[in-house]
Amino acid sequence: MSQLAKVQDQCSACTACALAGSRTSVVFGEGSPDARVIFVGEGPGEEEDLSGRPFVGRAGQLLDKILESAGIARSSIYIANIVKCRPPGNRVPTTEEAATCTPWLMRQIELIAPQVIVTLGNVPTQFFLNSTDGISKLRGRWFPWRAGIEVFPMYHPAYLLRNPTREPGGPKAQTWDDIRALKRRLDGLGPKQSAPNLAEPVQEALF
After folding, report:
1. What is the mean pLDDT of residues 14-39?
2. What CA–CA distance (Å, rounded) separates 23 from 84?
3. CA geometry: angle 132, 136, 142, nearest 5 deg
4. pTM
5. Distance CA 155, CA 47 (A)
6. Which of 5, 19, 37, 181 is the most exposed place for a label (fewest CB within 10 A)?
7. Residue 163 domain-assigned (yes or no)
8. What is the CATH number of the domain that holds 77?
9. What are phi and psi of 13, to 5 degrees?
10. DSSP H stretches of helix in the chain
């Protein structure tokens, strides 16, 4: 059994916060253990909670289309969330719930050793960048994080479903720009490093 699979087994038994009491499934994450990029959302929704898989509902189906439009195979990436259990009513995870659950995410990052983390929406973006700025201000920009990993914020596909207009310069047009920028960066990356040191201090943002 791989180290990632062992961590998943441990996570599936986690009862460290109140979300464990209302979940159907622990939604650990899925994708390539050799991924160059990890996409991180906020938390599982109803369909994810029922299936145990991340991003399989309407937002996940739209994410699949966004990836496909840029020639990025879902099988080549890894997808996870800040919290592994569904918050009741799909509410935003509390600070305490996120703090309790993020060690699982940090372990995923250590084992996969991605070169890029794409944060989808406000919650993961603000967590990784330690910022209170909203996604509309941060999206489409590259930020150095730790151990040489870059963070690239994008709109969450659920937001695009709530804002379906296609006006020039709107969220859908910006997402198209962002996914193409991500593909260019991935195509230009060198070899991956292994076992990143996530204790490395966060660097200043790039502009």
Report:
1. 97
2. 9
3. 80
4. 0.93
5. 20
6. 5
7. yes
8. 3.40.470.10
9. -105, 5
10. 3-12, 46-51, 58-69, 95-112, 122-129, 135-138, 157-162, 171-187
